Every structure is written in C-alpha cells, then in structure tokens.
Amino acid sequence: MTHPVAIRFVETELDDLAAREGRIAVLITPEGKLTAASRRLDRLTRGAVARAVGSPAWGKLKPGEGMVIGWPGGLAAEAMVLISLPRKASLAEARKAGATVGKVLDEKGALVIAENHPSAAEIAFGLALRAYRFDYLSEEKKPFGPVSMMVAHPEEVAAKAAPHAALAEGVFFTRDLVNEPANILTTDDFAARLAAMHELGLDVQILEEDELKDLGMRALLGVGQGSESPSKVVVMQWNGLSKPANGDAEEEPPLALVGKGVCFDTGGISIKPAAGMEEMTMDMGGAAVVAGVMRTLALRNAPVNVVGLVGLVENMPDGKAQRPGDIVKSMKGDTIEVINTDAEGRLVLADVLWYAQQKFRPRAVIDLATLTGAIIVALGHENAGVFANDDGFAQDVVQAARAEGEGAWHMPLQPAYDSLIKSRLADIKNTGGRWAGAITAAAFLNKFVNSETPWCHIDIAGVALPPSETALSPKGASGWGVMTLDRLIRDKFEA
Ligand code: BES
Ligand code: MN
Ligand code: ZN
Q1: Which of 17, 130, 194, 265 sits at a 20 to 30 Å CA gap from 283?
Q2: Which locations, inside or outside the cell, does it occupy (predicted)?
Q3: Do residues 240 and 96 share a domain?
Q4: What pLDDT does residue 247 have?
C-alpha cells in the first residue's frame, strides 16, 4: 500500500540554499514579483529567475503551473521549479501549485519555499496527492525523498495541514484498489483489505454467499455465479458518535455509502469486445471510493455515524454463468429480467441498496458506481453524473465536489424514463435500450430505494480511471470522490 509523502514545515531560512540537493521550488506571483527567497535564488543563479519570469512563457502559465529549470548554475540542486501562483489563490490553484512539485519529485526530495503564502497547507496537500505512483515494474523505484516546506509560521501551517493526512491516505487507498489488476484484487483479496481496516476502529463484517442466499440477494448472486471468486458483501461501520447515555435512546441513524465492486467485468455471456476490456479491472471503483472514505473517517476520528457497504463480485462467462433472459428475484422481492448480463452493476446495487436500508434505516444513502458507458458519452472524463430522488441532496453533492475541485454534474431522474425499463415478464428489466443509458440505469436503482429516504447515485465510470493524468493524480486511478464525500460528510452530516 502506497503512503503519501510526509511534509515537514520549517522556518524560512535562506542562508544555505546554494548547497541544497534535490529540487528547490519557489512561489512567484503571475506578475513576476520576486519575494525574498526568489530574489536570493536569482542572485545565486546570476539572474536566471528574473530572466525566466520576464520571458513570454511565464505569462502563459496558468495559476499553479510552473517552469522547471534543470541543473541551475550556482545551485547544488538538480532543478529549480518556479511556480506561478497569485497571493489570493483558489483552493484548486494552490493544490495545483503543490502538484507541480509532486509531479517531478524523486528520491532526492524537495524543498518548497512558500514563505508567508496564505495557502501553504493546501499547496502541501496538492504535492502529497500528486506524488503517487503505482506499478508492477520489476525494477523497483527508490522511494520519494524527504519534502520540507519553508513557511512563515510552521506550527500554524502544520495544524492546518494535519486533517489532510487522513484524506490523502483515503485517496491513496482508493487509487491503489482501482489500479490493482483483477488477478490480484479478487473478491477475497478485496474483502481481506477491508477487514484489515478493523485496526483503525472500523467494525467490518463480511457476508459470504450462503448468508447472501439466506437474505435473498439473488440479483447480486446471479452476477457472480459464473466466477471462481465467491461473491461477498462487506459492511464497514464507523460509529464516531458516542452512544446516547440513556440506554433506551436510539442510536443516531447512519449515512449509508454503497459501492459497486465488480472486480472484473467481462460483460458475462453478453461479453464485451476485446478492445479495452482490460480497463474493466476498475469496475470496483465505487466500492473503492466507499472504502477510501471509510478509511479517512476512521483516521480523522470523524464525529459521525457512517456505514459503508460494498457488493464484491466478478462478472464472468461460464457454464454456470447467468444468461440473457434469466429472471431473478431481488432481496426486495421484485423480479428482474436480465436482458443483458453486461448491465450487472445495477443488479449488484439493487440488493446492496435494499439491504442497507432494511438493516440500517439510514438517514440518507449515497451509492457510487462505474455504472454506464453512457455517462462517459454524456459527460466525458471531467464530471461524474449525480442523480438523486431529492434535488437539494444532489445540489449538496455537486457543491461539495465543486469545493474540492472534483467535477460533478446534476443529471435528471424523472418518472418518464421508467417506461423504458418495463419488462414483458418480470417487474423490471435491467436495460433500457440505446437512449439515456445512464438515466435508465439510475431509474432502475431508484426502484430499490424507499422514496422517503434521501438517496443519491453517482455514476463515476468516466472519472474513476481517466485516460490521462489529472491536476492532482498521475495517469491511472484518480481517487475521484473521496474528497467530495469527506467534504459533504463534514459539511452536512457531522454533528
Ligand atoms: N462497467 C460497465 C460500465 C463502464 C463502461 C464503466 C466503461 C467504465 C467504463 C457496466 O457494467 C456496463 O457494462 N454497462 C453497459 C450497460 C448496457 C449493457 C446497458 C454499458 O454501459 O454499455
Ligand atoms: Mn457491465
Ligand atoms: Zn460493470
């Protein structure tokens, strides 16, 4: 498991800059106004800094972007990174500035000179989020070197930065899970990694196939029945609110987070084309976000009750696999005609959503899933699709995402779409045809949610594993949603 780099905050001390190894990064305003530190670096490099910020290229940098000057004369450092950042930077701009350093970090480490910049803690967070790597190269890379950040008031900044550590750990946990190939991250392995979070104070329970059968989760079990890997539901409880002193008093109902955990999605008998199928190792991305958020809540000892539930299955073609045309009975009791075995995520979620509501009577439910290719057609890789049975709830989620710099867009969910998922033989069918594919998927899920329970569905198919690097993550899993949900929980659910 990858851990974020630890960043030390120290007093600004410019005397021995010339001898520093690794990378030296310094913040300069977009107008090119040099600070004490950048003036010192300019003198040591015989004017390289002033020439760089006077160049046309400097003016083209967006806030948070930088220029890397290699092997600068007059410095022992391998590189000097000049970062363009206004004094009044947005949160996303400040994090981007840190990411500019995180992106070029190596085993030699870095010194970031932030002086008295008001966003120093956010800069550090961006650096930590971008300094992530995940690979199976046989030649091991050396670990990242130490990072220190020079600031005007180290203790103050360290206090502001402290809550970010739990968040970065959660994001990295999610990214690792999404990046893992399916021969490593089987349903058993996934469940074991979640069970290990017991040591953080989470109560983790694993429901095995026989228990799922007893509960009547035939929709979920049907998806996994062609796989050698056993289907499971894992329940992670974080009870951050102490039980009411009065023994009779009810415990505060939790927020329930539900995740699609398809460890590999071949499509099943409705098999997917070969091109790009390898990407379906990420089809457990919803479950990974739920796991990452639970990890963050435990690490920061959040004063809130949240239960995370993930349905872990593998969708394989096999002699025992579910067929198109099969009719299954869900835990709710509704029958489902399986038109296409590749629309499996909604079958898994139908049962986990119902179980979450029956078992925990949650105050609200949020599910996350790499549910449809259609959401990528609609929104690309910039925004997750947000659906809800309550417009206010959807707006809260979109607001939280915006505050964290993660893209999210409110999508429609109206009864008019229900006719598309009417079945000839069963209560409902699992596909709605060509049009509005992300919406009919959401409409399907809606049938398994009590209308009095505030519910939000987030389709993360486009954002969980974007095709190129993002502002805060290298190419590969983004960890989208951990920051958004942590923010939402803080702002809307904590006492
Ligand atoms: N896991 C896929 C959705 C997906 C596609 C996620 C691309 C990430 C990237 C899902 O199970 C699926 O196959 N959906 C089908 C539904 C269809 C058969 C109704 C789809 O979107 O094509
Ligand atoms: Mn599928
Ligand atoms: Zn899928």
Answers
A1: 130
A2: Cytoplasm
A3: no
A4: 67
Residues 299 and 425 in one domain: yes
Residues 147 and 220 in one domain: no
- Cα 118 to Cα 24, 36, 114, 150, 354: the distances in Å are 19, 16, 9, 13, 46
Contact (Cβ atoms closer than 8 angstroms) between residue 125 and residue 164: yes
Are residue 104 and residue 181 in the same domain, yes or no? no
Q: Is 436 in the pocket of ligand 1 (CB under 6 A)?
A: no
Q: Which residues of the chain have pLDDT under 50?
A: none
Set 43, 108, 272, 492: catalytic member: 272
Answer whether residue 159 is part of any domain: no
CATH number for the domain harbouring residue 403:
3.40.630.10
- Judge whether 346 counts as a catalytic residue: yes
Mutate to test the pocket of ligand 1, among 368, 372, 440 (most ligand atoms within 8 A of CB): 372
Q: Cα–Cα distance between 463 and 465 in angstroms, integer?
A: 6
Same domain, 143 and 181: no
How far CA 293 is from CA of 147, 169, 188, 202, 455, in Å, comes to 26, 9, 20, 12, 18
Question: Which atom from ligand 1 is nearest to the alpha carbon of 272?
Answer: 13
Return the HEC string of 15-57. CCHHHCCCEEEEEECCCCCCCHHHHHHHHHCCCHHHHHHHCHH
Are the beta carbons of 339 and 431 closer than 8 angstroms? Answer: yes
Domain count, the chain: 2
CA distance 213 to 73: 70
342 is in an annotated binding site: yes
Strand partners, 455: 365
End-to-end CA, the chain: 32
Structure tokens, 320: 């025992």
Give the separation between CA 203 and CA 188, rounded to whole angstroms.
18
Do 304 and 333 belong to one domain?
yes
**Any atom of ligand 1 within 6 Å of the Cβ of 315:** no
- Let me know the angle formed at the C-alpha of 309 by 432 and 253, rounded to the nearest 5 degrees: 110
Alpha helices of 322-416 — where are they, by DSSP H? 345-360, 374-379, 391-404
Q: What pLDDT is stored for residue 146 in this prediction?
A: 97
Annotated binding residue 33? no
345 CB less than 6 Å from ligand 1? yes
Cα 224 to Cα 317: distance, rounded to the nearest angstrom? 10
